[in-house]
Design goal:
The complex is a heterodimer of chains A (269) and B (248).
Chain A lengths: L12 H27 L6 H40 L6 H39 L2 H7 L4 H39 L4 H11 L2 H27 L4 H34 L5
Helix pairs in contact in A: 2-3, 2-5, 3-5, 3-6, 3-7, 3-8, 5-7, 7-8
Chain B lengths: L5 E10 L2 E11 L4 E6 L5 H8 L7 E6 L2 E2 L5 H9 L1 E4 L11 H12 L4 H14 L15 H13 L5 E5 L7 H18 L2 E5 L3 H7 L2 E6 L2 E6 L1 H5 L4 H13 L1
Parallel strand pairs in B: 3-8, 3-9, 6-7, 7-8
Antiparallel strand pairs in B: 1-2, 1-4, 4-5, 9-10
Helix pairs in contact in B: 3-5, 4-5, 5-6, 6-7
Classes of the chains: A mainly alpha (269), B alpha/beta (248).
Amino acid sequence: MDIPKIKYRRDAAFVEKLNNFFTNISGLTIFNIEFFKQLFSLPIEIEQIKKHMNELGVKTFSIVSIMGIILGFVLALQSHPVLERFGATDFLPATVALTIIRELGPILTALIFAGRVSSGIGAEISSMRVTEQIDAMEVSAINPFKYLVVSRVVATTLILPILSIYVIMLSLLGAFVAVIMTDNMSFIYFKNAVVSSITFGDLIPALVKTVFFGYIVGIVGAYKGYTADGGTEGVGRASTTAVVMASLLILIVDMIMVKLTIWLWPTLG
Amino acid sequence: MSKPLIEIVDLKKSFENLTVLNGISIDVFEGDNFVVFGQSGTGKSVLLKCIVGLLQPDGGDILVNGESIINLSSDKLSEFRKSLGFLFQGAALYDSMSVRENLEFPLKRNFDFTQDEIDQKVISTLSMVGLEESVDKMPSELSGGMRKRIGLARSIITEPKIMLYDEPTTGLDPITSKEISVLILELQKKLNMTSIVVTHDLLCAEIIANKAIVLHNGDIIEEGTIDELTSSDNKLLRNFFSSEIIKE
């Protein structure tokens, strides 16, 4: 697999940026193709996938928990005065639930996950690259792409939807806490209002999105790590650029998928 | 005369405008301890990386047992790599694995040994390098010399026929360097391996080598035994070896 290396120290900064942009696009495309070529080839690294899912879940569990509760709490507090202005506070549970499920829950979980995991994968694999550990695997007739990249990308793709569901649940709990602080609303009323406002069409596109987001986090982190060069400086560069690139791609893919969902199922709009 | 085990024929390798190997040819026979000398940046490590297929040469050929290993399919390249060991300059131990896991890794992935056989191999290989007590340590807990020994143990655990060493004594103190060099020679005799050793450490070469070449600017400027090289009239060689002797 021949992945174009990023070139540095060009005279013109603009040419350098343009060069980097296209190198990244072409490199990432080749990397994606290689991923799908090796995804179903044997052996399937089940143990590694389980290990990474476990690690990633533990690593991000506390931060997404805090984020989830605060998200729901703040959203409910902010929405209450606005809805009160229109005499629509009864719609507060439904408004908050739909906002969290359809957009804020998945996107914020993905962005936090990218910050925590993409940089971690980038740093881990790049330090293996610069200390010749990846070369050592290759020389030992072990496929490092399959062992290091495929297992991590599969793990991030599978774990992010689970984390997103967990964050959505916690956010709704946070929202309920905010609601009972401002309104005299029972848990049963809140729960019924939330459940009756959600449809199948709200849940599925949101969860499908998180599968793509998880894939982006894994593949970008792994790409940046796998193609790193330049010693310890390269490790730092891989780690930071992985977060920036993954976050940007998540936002772009989110925009495309929201538009696509509304275009395919206009009733959801 | 017997055929060489490894034949390097007119090997060329450049990086952009920099020519690193300028058409070098080497014959390495079975049982040889072949040392490649040269200053930093003369293409010694590039030569090793071409032999194991980590780098693709621009021209020439590499034959092992008479068979070209350039442009092998990935399956055949994997098979070929199973028959060789490679000690990296920094040992390249897997940071996230203990010493035991580092040694088990190639055995579990490439061979069908039972866990008992693997355990036995790990302990016997560690005893060869004198580090049985480090079996459950992590690489971060090891000194430079210990890392090299464990790296060596990981390379020989699969009992390779060909062993490649990339600067095996770089970064070590003179006493540890000597110990590693002696260990390499002992293992080579014990396991009947053919070795190519890239180094600029004269003491290491004196202990290990039965044949050597000197690379300079991508060309072989001298070849022979260590004694022949150190007594050569070539000015470059005299400069190189005199600076090595001062270092020692």
